[in-house]
Amino acid sequence: MEVIFKKPHALTDVPFHYCAGCTHGIVHRLVAEVIDELGIEGKTVGVSPVGCAVMCYDYFNCDVIEAPHGRAPAVATGIKRALPDNVVFTYQGDGDLAAIGTAETVHSATRGENITVIFINNTIYGMTGGQMAPTSLPNQVTQTTPYGRDVNTAGYPIRVCELLSNVDGVALAQRVAVDCVKNVNIAKQAIKKAFQNQIDKKGFSIVEVLSTCPTNWGMSPVEALQWLRDNMMPYYPLGVYKDGEKGDRLK
Amino acid sequence: MSEKILMKGNEALGEAAIQAGCRHFFGYPITPQTELAAYMSKKMPKIGGTYLQAESEIAAINMVLGAASAGVRAMTSSSSPGISLKTEGISYIAGSDVPALIINVQRGGPGLGGIQPSQSDYWQATRAAGHGDFHLLVYAPSTVQEMVDLVFLAFDKGDEYRMPAMILADGMLGQMMEPVEFKEREQKAPIEKPWAVNGHKNERPHNIINSLYLDPHELENLNIKRFEKYKRVIENEQKSVEYMTQDAEYIVVAFGASARVAHSAVDMAREQGIKVGLFRPVTLWPFPEKALKTTVESTKKYLCVEMSMGQMIDDVKLATECRRPVEFFGRTGGVIPTVDEVFGAIKKLGGGN
């Protein structure tokens, strides 16, 4: 009998704790499939964030270290400098990567650290119960913007791929979504490139994945996907913002 | 045979770390530890090591967390305000049972404070180097030679106990020059680190380095287990040096730079016939309570001399169980006590002026 679909080896048997309709599960699977396809599980070290994905150390079969909030790129830098031939990736949410960890994100990118960053943007703090994130949209209602995000007092959402596309240490900055089969396939190719870039020593690679949080958005999984298409995609256009290697604009 | 060379304290710390096998240094500029980072930036590229100037002290300590978790000897150095920023990472390092070296070349505080030598981070180092139940190994050198020797010891003991270690120096020791000898040390096989996250090579289950435990009982048990380890550290790792305490009626307790001043003051007092000695803790955590306790019966009074408003004095009172009076003399804010001042404080112990 031919096996046509199976759990990637790079995922453990531990059941995900994620809510129904949350897209963390899809992205975990894509990362694991890429690790399998590149045959790098034995030399990969993952860095888990603080947030809903904190326990991804239980889900990925490679070695994993759990970093303080926002510090995953710094922890990854330390690992990569100690083990330059290993593959090191971080998996971070929007609060982790674009609020408390902004300095670590920008500076690991500007150093051109040879690491892979998987960035889950769902416009909200999930684990703590739905507070405003740095990526929450204008007028978006969250626990801490109960009247909608007022850009005059709470500022504007941060567009991470656009920001990092201007940083010379970056090899790849691509925004994808996992709302439909076509986009899932594009997301997987982007993630694969982000890992391959590291193996090829091209520099810092980040894949931003537009994701849903039905629980904290107060929607059904299907409604959440539609809300993502209607509201997030216009503000955060999908696409490739930088694709090359570190320092290529200086040559 | 190795020879004596003249070296600045900060540079000696760097050279010692390199000779102890450290190839990964992550720092952020701050006075008065500047020469240490500069030394590393000069040496590391020549020996295949990493010198990385991070974007902040927070990033630097987290790079140490990453590198040390990958199984290598890693370190960072800073001074008081910078150490405050590192406390988050230090707590995670301790909570993840990862060995690492943190050097604090102290300056006056609180806040931005000053840039002159101080010992006012004693509480921070020994009591609260971050949130949660944990300890660091804390070593307090008093000479440049001791700075060298304690770096080796801090790395070895950190690896042995799987816990972070701190060298608590100060701006005076960091900036001064003294002859120092790098003794030939027997080459020890590097300690095995089977817990490291360095890729499982398809040969073992995946390793996880983590400090999150959502089940309170699991976390409680882990903390209890860690404190059993600390008990072994307290039992086996106390270090102190005594000077003229054999027949002493009074004992001055001082560490680091202030112990140098106190040493001269003890000599001065002895010339005047005052039976006084010096007890110098070398480990601040664990505090050398066993040795200090043995002096209680024969000692009338203690005098704690510190470059702070009085922090180690708490440990002196605890170790002596307050069975004898413990007086205090300190200068703070970056002011170094003079020998005459400490001599004056010694004279007062016996009721003199």
Largest interface: A-B, 36 and 40 residues
CATH superfamily of chain A: Thiamin diphosphate (ThDP)-binding fold, Pyr/PP domains
Give the CATH architecture of chain A.
Answer: 3-Layer(aba) Sandwich
- Count of DSSP helices of chain B? 12
Backbone structural class of chain B: alpha/beta
Q: Tell me the count of domains of chain A.
A: 1
Detail the poorly predicted runs of chain B.
none
Beta-strand level of the residues of chain A, as a percent range? 15-25%
**Major sheet of chain A: size, sense and barrel closure?**
7 strands, mixed
Rounded mean pLDDT of chain A is 97
The CATH superfamily of the largest domain in chain B is known as Thiamin diphosphate (ThDP)-binding fold, Pyr/PP domains
Structural class estimated from helices and strands of chain A: alpha/beta
Unreliable stretches of chain A: none
What is the rounded Rg of chain A? 17 Å
Based on the structure, what is the oligomeric state of the protein chains? heterodimer
CATH topology of the largest domain in chain B: Rossmann fold
Largest β-sheet summary of chain B = 7 strands, mixed
> How many strands appear in the DSSP assignment of chain A?
9
SS summary, helix count of chain A: 9
Rounded radius of gyration of chain B (Å): 21 Å
